[in-house]
Amino acid sequence: MHLTGDTSSSQxxxxxxxxxxxxxxxxxxEQQWIFTEEExxxxxxxxxxxxPDEERTLRKKGVNFILQVGMMLKLPxxxxxxxxxxxxxxxxxxSLKPSAGYKPLHHYQIAATAxxxxxxxxxxxxxxxxxxxxxxxxxLKDPNKLVDEQTKDFWKWRDTILYSEDVLLETICFDxxxxxxxxxxxxxxxxxxxxxxxxxRNASWAFLSDSCLTELCLLFTSRTIxxxxxxxxxxxxxxxxxxxxxxPWWEVQHVKLRDIRRACNMMADIYEATAxxxxxxxxxxxxxxxxxxxxxxx
Length: 298
What we know:
This protein is an all-alpha fold. It contains 14 helices and no strands. The protein has two domains: about 35-170, Cyclin A, domain 1 (Orthogonal Bundle), CATH 1.10.472; about 180-295, Cyclin A, domain 1 (Orthogonal Bundle), CATH 1.10.472.10. Helices cover about 55% and strands about 0% of the residues. It comes from Lindgomyces ingoldianus. This is Cyclin-like protein.
């Protein structure tokens, strides 16, 4: 299958403006949070003696905490994605290992605070009481745990979240402008008039949901992750995405194919062996592609 489409004859849907590149100020702000794989191995916890595998596991546990609490509160995926980014960025500045005069926050405490902040940034606020109850229940792995203002756990978590909000804000330099890749991916689907292709949409969405549990948000821009999800979804759904004016679709969307392939390859390395859901073939099977391969054979 070719993902470039017929670039000589394909045209974008009439009446649609071509995608504009992200504003330079947005690009500059996001770039300070993009790292190389080598730089990820210099995260504070690893520098302080934690193994890279353990650090990666704690990141995943923290994001899982965000997702479970978010599901209890019926929060949209975009809010959970933003919280995951805040959580991962925090761990590039602060260690999870204690040292002389420094007591780190637990990864669940950071996750809860990141979710609290994300609900405000994405304007999906929940009552503090609801958030605290959900956090306690997920932390204790007891979805029916009785939690109210009369219990010690309630006040412990409430105070921790309120105290840690300032710590989180200072650590991420009050940089709250995040463009969730879900929104960008859906805009790409609409641009090509393929947003109603359920198989394509679901496969792309699954890629983004899986990416939240990885460090992809520290390695690639939000726009690249969105394009990679569309690339993976198109392969899975066997959809040709048209080019335009002699350019392949990823160039029209201001994304480099090499970055898309790197992101897809990383996701394939992590999830290729994962059992597919509902018996459907995994979107990661056969996704691995040499980064410098001929685009027309993509």
